[in-house]
Design brief:
Largest sheet: 6 strands, mixed
CATH topology of the largest domain: Rossmann fold
Strand order of the largest sheet: 6-7-8-3-9-10
Radius of gyration: 18 Å
Low-confidence stretches: none
Mean pLDDT: 93
Structural class: alpha/beta
Number of helices: 11
Distance between the termini: 39 Å
CATH class of the largest domain: Alpha Beta
Shape: globular
Number of strands: 10
Bound molecules: adenosine-5'-diphosphate, magnesium ion
Length: 244
């Protein structure tokens, strides 16, 4: 055993579109896997299968040994933190309340204190941030708050959907360092979506390359570079080199 997350032959279609085509992937306890691939390749769909925001048409999804189709979705969301692609902060709620949401839904003890702890973990001062509206934060602060929200209920596992996507290079580098520290400190298991190969190499133990709903290769960064398994992976590597 030992896998924190496992997808086995998971498929999902939307009408004629095959979003996931028999995808099998395991993320070990404490491991960070980066899902990389172009827009529309199925990254978000796969991520959402792990917290039951999407139910696959076929295949099995397992979280910490439990088949998610038989798990309570609310309990699952306590165990598995989620940073959606847009950050997911509710615009009409102050940051503190946003971050306290999952602990509150779960009936945990003292959600505001858990929210303060989570804000500190991501480098935000609760005294300065808790009463502000999401729109009053910078892009980087908002992404930090979104990560805090995913961590507030102290999950073992986090799913992050392009968490550092729309940020300038310096802010992005800061957040990447924070993420590396958090993973060390909390021994988090993470599945992280990115379209940036350099980010995947920096943050992940293994990289999973998706293309048209299929998983093309899953390998540590060095192995991916040295032994690309398919023509698509070679193209991806070549393109990343051109861009820098
Ligand atoms: P990615 O995150 O890699 O950009 P997605 O998983 O969001 O890709 O989407 C994979 C494919 O499935 C795309 O063609 C997308 O348009 C389609 N898709 C995703 N979600 C839905 C949905 N709720 N309804 C219809 N089509 C969807
Ligand atoms: Mg996506």
């Amino acid at each position: 055993m030992g896998a924190a997350l496992a997808a086995r032959e998971v498929s999902k279609r939307y009408g004629a579109i095959v979003a996931l085509d028999r995808v099998s992937l395991e993320v070990r306890q404490g491991e960070c896997v980066a899902l990389i691939g172009e827009s529309g390749s199925g990254k978000t769909t796969l991520l959402r299968c792990f917290n039951r925001l999407t139910d696959p048409d076929a295949g099995v999804v397992v979280v910490q040994g439990d088949d998610v189709s038989a798990s309570d979705p609310v309990d699952l969301r306590r165990r598995v933190g989620y940073v959606p692609q847009d950050g997911g902060l509710l615009p009409h709620w102050p940051i503190g309340r946003n971050v306290a949401l999952v602990p509150w839904l779960r009936g945990m003890n003292d959600p505001p204190a858990l929210a303060d702890q989570a804000l500190r973990l991501v480098g935000l001062d609760p005294a300065a941030m808790a009463n502000r509206w999401p729109r009053e934060l910078s892009g980087g602060q908002r992404q930090r708050a979104a990560v805090a929200r995913a961590l507030a209920a102290r999950p073992d596992i986090v799913l992050l959907d392009e968490p550092f996507g729309a940020l300038d290079a310096i802010t992005r580098a800061d957040l990447q360092s924070t993420f590396l520290e958090l993973r060390r400190e909390l021994a988090l298991t993470a599945l992280l979506v990115t379209h940036d190969l350099a980010e995947a190499c920096l943050l992940a133990d293994r990289i999973a390359v998706m293309h048209q709903g299929r998983l093309e290769q899953v390998a540590p960064p060095g192995e991916l570079r040295e032994a690309p398994a398919t023509a698509y992976v070679r193209t991806l590597l070549a393109r990343a080199r051109v861009v820098g």
